[in-house]
Amino acid sequence: MSHETDQKTLAEQFYATMLRARRFEEEAFEFYKKGMMPGMAHLYLGEEAVAVGVCTALKPEDCIGSTHRGHGHLVARGPDMGPMMAEILGKKTGYSKGKGGTMHIMARDRGILGANGIVGAELPISTGAAYAFKLRKEPRVSVVFFGDGASNQGTFHESINMAAAWDLPIVYVIENNRYAISTGFTRVTKEHRLSNRALAYGIPGETVDGNDVFAVYEAASKAVERARRGEGPTLLECLTYRWQGHNVGDPGKYRPDDEVAEWKSRDPLRLLERSGILSEQEISAIRSDVEAEIADMCAFAAESEYPPLSELGTDVFVD
């Protein structure tokens, strides 16, 4: 396969998956506004290139740990979107029978260890998975996504220090979207290039444009293969931006309008469209296919039934 053909194939895959993630979030927001979603959703709109670039670098047997803003990671990993949306709506056809909801979706068949409502909780979980892989001598890699806010949690140091000391097969991916709820990361962090923290642990650190899916994919591929060779973890910082507030109930007024507009002008989907790799006809065909998938997903989730009350006490303890 030539470089041009390979790039074209990747571009088609990237565009389709980013569009799925984008449309998934838009439809989740619509369900929320109709009163059909329990709880608050934390939307991934604008950050799609990070999840897609990283997850494309993984093999089926690898695993990911996700955050409260996890829908995009999960879509990028490739599970059935119908049960994903059903889970968000609390339906019994969801991946966790509707008991996990928007912040606790997991799909072990796709290596999704679960999204987490506690900031930074996914760091030790994913590190533990990497430890298990090494103990069992399995050629598998763990990836953990977390935000700039979570990089200031104690779990960050504890997890990355352990992984570095033992050369665990894991990639730590900071999604630096500039805000931890309403707090700008430069107000609470002296070193603004968060990948430089890797120096303290003796591991590689790299910062990339998190809205450029090819840049993310190339950096993630290098880090994943390094981990798979037994050479230990990498800290990858992806600079990106969430288009909306912290959750669907947050208007995000703490962010300057010109800052939001500037980042929206660097929409990951539009950047790929403007690259010229895909023709208008190819983009249109991908959009048509994805819209059909989204329609099926929404119908499945909306028409699914809620679990009966008899399910209330099940799945609480391990048998």
How would you describe this protein?
- The protein is built from 11 helices and 7 strands.
- The chain is an alpha/beta fold and 319 residues long.
- The strands form 2 sheets. The chain has a 5-stranded parallel β-sheet with strand order 1-2-3-7-6, with helices on both faces. Strands 4-5 form a two-stranded antiparallel sheet.
- The radius of gyration is 19 Å and the shape is globular.
- The termini are far apart.
Write the layout of secondary structure elements.
Elements: H1 3-33, H2 48-56, E1 63-65, H3 71-77, H4 81-88, H5 122-135, E2 142-147, H6 154-165, E3 170-176, E4 179-180, E5 183-184, H7 185-188, E6 205-209, H8 213-228, E7 234-239, H9 257-264, H10 268-274, H11 280-303
Parallel strand pairs: 1-2, 2-3, 3-7, 6-7
Antiparallel strand pairs: 4-5
Helix pairs in contact: 1-2, 1-3, 1-10, 1-11, 2-3, 2-8, 4-11, 5-6
